[in-house]
Amino acid sequence: MSSKKKNFARFGMAAKGAVYCIIGILTALAAFGQGGEQTGGKGALKYLAEQSYGQFLLIVLAVGLLGYVFWRFYQSFANPNGFEDNPKGYGKRVAFFISGLLYGGLAFYSFKLAFGGGGSGDSKSMTGSLMSGSNGDTIAIIIGIGMAIKAVYDLYRAYSGKFREEVEETGMDHKEQKLLINAGKFGHTARGVVIALMAFLTLRSGLSSGNDIGTQTDAFSFIQNEFGSFALGIVAIGLVGYGVYMFIKAKYPAISVASLRNNNSGGHGKKTIDLK
Fold it and tell me: How far apart are CA 251 and CA 168, in angstroms?
């Protein structure tokens, strides 16, 4: 991969981190009664649109998200992780492709907001059209199962340390590596919890003929209603942690074929510093 393409991918990782930080900060402020609002990705973009230089910020973020789309598609088709040609390997590459499509949609929405489109009524337009058919319940159940798998995988990454395989730790000092571990574990845990609740709400809707997909905002409301504002605040701060992890990943990406395969084959363990 050329240096320009690598930098474009890194810019994409940073843009994703920025989106998660905005989501987490706004939701944490709302949870602790300091303003803010419970929001998801589109809500974060709408918040930017209301700020000074909002159009400029939205365009920069949209270009960054396209960089993340490029990276996900590169992972899908170039297979730098070296996934084998079996159902497991193909499944991971398909997941990367779907992730690219989702962030492509967010990039499109950011451009749309920047140039005067994307009103409040647009937030669930794609979901609404998807659910409006006769097979809406089935689609909701399938999506819910997919979300549940993603949630389990995020929690697995958090406590197995798998998230570190995507960061090139050579050259990182002690403080940076400690921040990587804490932000990665806390952030992936929080994201796993949110996605798990989205899966639960989606499956519940599909099984009861509700034809609806649970959003991040729905998950936040569920946490606050069932467990209280403090729990919501902790989860929201965790999402900020995930954003910080993405910033570290953008700075030290294991983005080349060689580095990714070295990490996946066990080279990662040789670089670990004892943090106890």
Answer: 9
Q: Let me know if residue 137 belongs to a domain.
A: yes
* Cross-strand partners of 167: 253
CA–CA–CA angle 98, 92, 81 (5° rounding): 115
What domain range includes position 219? 3-267
Number of domains in the chain: 1
Of the candidates 151, 138, 143, which has an alpha carbon nearest to the alpha carbon of residue 197?
151
Eight-state DSSP code of residue 210 = -
18, part of any domain? yes
Q: SS3 for 173?
A: coil
Q: pLDDT, tens digit, for every residue of 197-239?
A: 999 998 988 888 776 778 889 999 999 999 999 999 999 999 9
- Residue 269, exposed/middle/buried by CB under 10 A (0-12, 13-18, 19+)? exposed
Strand partners, 253: 167
Give the residue, 174 or 127, on which the prediction is more confident: 174
In this structure, are residues 49 and 105 in contact, taking their beta carbons and an 8 Å threshold?
no
